[in-house]
Here is the input.
Amino acid sequence: MSKPQLTTAHGKVILPSFFPDGTRGVVRCVDASDLAACGVQGVVMNTYHLMTKPGAATVKAMGGLHRFSGWDGTIITDSGGFQVFSLLRENSSLGEIRPNEIIFRRDGKKTVLSPEKCIQSQLAYGADILMALDYCTHPDDPPELQKKAVDVTIRWGKKCMDTFKSMRGEGQLFGIIQGGNHNDLRQECAQALLDMGYSGFGFGGWPLDGDGRLTEEILAHTAQLIPPGHVKYAMGIGRPENIVACVKMGWQLFDCVIPTREARHNRLYIFNEDYQSPTDIDTSNNFYKHMYILDDIYRRDGAPISKICDCHTCRNYSRGYLRHLLSIGDGLGLRLATIHNLRFFTMLMEALQ
Here is the structure.
């Protein structure tokens, strides 16, 4: 039986798949060859951050994101809608949301992000998958704000699709379904975007509740609103156990900063040590653990990080050597730790396919 696939101009992505975040055009501490060797199929970059530096015009002049970054696999460009949530929510002085655009003010500079400019920039980047601009919320936000977010997301979604069609854009355009924890609002948003002709859909809004738990009920409900043949993208979900739970609901695509950020904080992911090979991986219960590599017990440890991992780090270096590199702050340590964590996540996806 053939595995579900997402076909893009830069290859086929076997689903489910995890894309690391290369927010500013780079997955931190590794290069394109490292990503390919880890089995990474695609990367998520960010429209807003690339607009501020180096700028859409510069990326276009350099031949697009693929040539600019050296990455020849699939690229998704997030719209910048999440920045409304993460930046403006925490500090309203950084900008404002207007009926037809978002204004960001940082470091003395003003950036305008409208639905039209969002699509124009992503087309200039040459992304394989473009994300429509949306109004992001937290699940604990009041119903009136969730309703506003849906109304704005639908209105901006129409402008994004119209701009995409008018520019005869290449690639695929995905919509983002908002609505908080309200089934009726999620359905309203999903149906409106479906009617516009989007080929895939992201789960909009923060996917965790105030206690950090996965909002499973609304994730499952939203997945059911997306018909077969449309890619289901669980945006921002990256804890391994949450990925497993979402795959069971029907979600197919994931991205998060977790594997790379954790590597930079000396925290490594390993599958349970009773597994003898990758084919033994069982994701049903407590299938992995963390290793804080700077712990003193690893000072003279000659074993690889994981005996079943085939990454460059595990094939060539010991825990003791990696601990040494990280303890002296050498950049090679960050690269090797990042490679391992990325390979853990691609091995997890392979076990789920």
In short: Residues 143-166 form the longest helix (24 residues). The radius of gyration is 20 Å.
